[in-house]
Design a protein that fits this description.
With 136 residues, this protein is α+β, with helices and mostly antiparallel strands. The protein contains three helices and five strands. The chain has a five-stranded antiparallel sheet.
Length: 136
């Protein structure tokens, strides 16, 4: 079995790049700074389907994404979650939140209608630089 993104993730996101383990996607909803990390392993549904090494790598990549997303966007709170009730493929949401966002303090999932980015390129460029390790 080969790794492939669930069609719903493809439809709802903009590709950002790859970390060591995860494909990183930007949710195409300008209301929230929202990344999705998808481990590039075929057939994963639950975090417990991963090896202990992969689970640690996933946690570290989610922490790095959260830290950089908070720094770049000024989010006051970062929500990290792996729900999978609709899209079964294992994926982790990293969502920047603030008291002024569209649905604060409620959850972002299923809240209102997504507002696609007019031009996501500047944010994508900043996120790519922030998530790419510096080479000495």
């Amino acid at each position: 079995m080969t790794f492939a993104l669930d069609p719903r993730l493809v439809a709802d996101t903009i590709p950002l790049g790859d970390m060591a383990l995860c494909r990183v996607l930007l949710m195409n909803d300008s209301r929230f700074p929202w990344l999705i990390l998808v481990p590039r392993r075929a057939g994963l549904v639950e975090i417990t389907d991963m090896t202990p090494f992969e689970r640690r790598a996933l946690f570290e990549e989610a922490a790095l994404a959260a830290d950089r997303l908070k720094l770049l966007t000024g989010a006051k709170k970062i929500n990290i979650g792996a729900l999978g009730n609709i899209v079964r493929q294992l994926h982790v949401h990293v969502v920047g939140r603030s008291e002024t966002d569209a649905v604060w303090p409620g959850p972002v999932w299923g809240a209102g209608v997504a507002e696609p980015y007019d031009d996501p390129q500047p944010l994508l460029d900043r996120l790519r630089r922030a998530l790419t390790p510096e080479v000495p």
